[in-house]
Amino acid sequence: MGSPLDEMAKPVVWIIDSQQWPRANLRALLIERGFDAIGFIELHQALATLNEPDYPKPRILVVELHDLSPTEEELERLARLPMPMIALAGAVELNQEWIKRIKWAALIQRPVSIGQVADAIEKLVLTPSPPPSPHRGEGRGEGDSL
């Protein structure tokens, strides 16, 4: 029996993470689960791509805050977009007040597995109600920790 995603067009997920292997692993798992996952190394690349008319627009954004060092202005610009955002963050990022002010669909604290992140993405795609409040991801525990 297939997943509920089999019944719908492949939802596009943009993963913004400066670390190659965590980004690639999450992308591979999402592709296996029926998503069209696209990775970006830097936030400004994703922001610039939003203006390209032929590039697939994201249904969900996943932003790794740890090594990304986003500016408040960049994150506020993303927050104004009409799609949910999931933040992956450590204790240092979570203690920054301006990070807390951003409207996240989910704020997932590290350490977390790629399976837990993929579960949070699936939950947002398959749940027609408003996005869940910020939480630590719960999932199947697939894959390595990010």
How would you state the average pLDDT, rounded? 86
* Proportion of beta-strand residues: 15-25%
Shape descriptor = globular
Helix and strand succession? EHEHEHEHHEH
Helix vs. strand class: alpha/beta
In angstroms, what separates the terminal alpha carbons? 29 Å
Q: How many structural domains can be distinguished in the coordinates?
A: 1
CATH superfamily: Response regulator
Number of helices, counting only DSSP H or I runs of 4 residues or more: 6
Computed Rg: 14 Å
Q: Percent range for helical residues?
A: 25-40%
CATH class: Alpha Beta
Major sheet details: 5 strands, parallel
CATH topology: Rossmann fold
Uncertain parts: 131-144
Walk across the major sheet and give the strand order: 2-1-3-4-5
CATH architecture: 3-Layer(aba) Sandwich
**Strand segment tally:** 5
Salient structural properties:
146 residues; single chain; disordered C terminus; Rossmann fold; 5-stranded parallel beta sheet; alpha/beta; 34% helix
Structure, briefly:
With 146 residues, the protein is an alpha/beta fold.
What can you see in these coordinates?
This protein is of the alpha/beta class and 146 residues long. The chain has a single domain (4-126), classed as Rossmann fold, CATH 3.40.50. The protein is 34% helix and 16% strand. It has 6 helices and 5 strands. The protein has helices at 20-32, 43-49, 72-79, 91-94, 97-101, 114-126; strands at residues 12-16, 36-40, 60-64, 85-89, 106-109. A 5-stranded parallel beta sheet has the order 2-1-3-4-5. Helix 3 (72-79) links the parallel strand 3 and strand 4 (85-89). The longest helix is centred in the N-terminal third of the chain and has 13 residues, at 20-32.
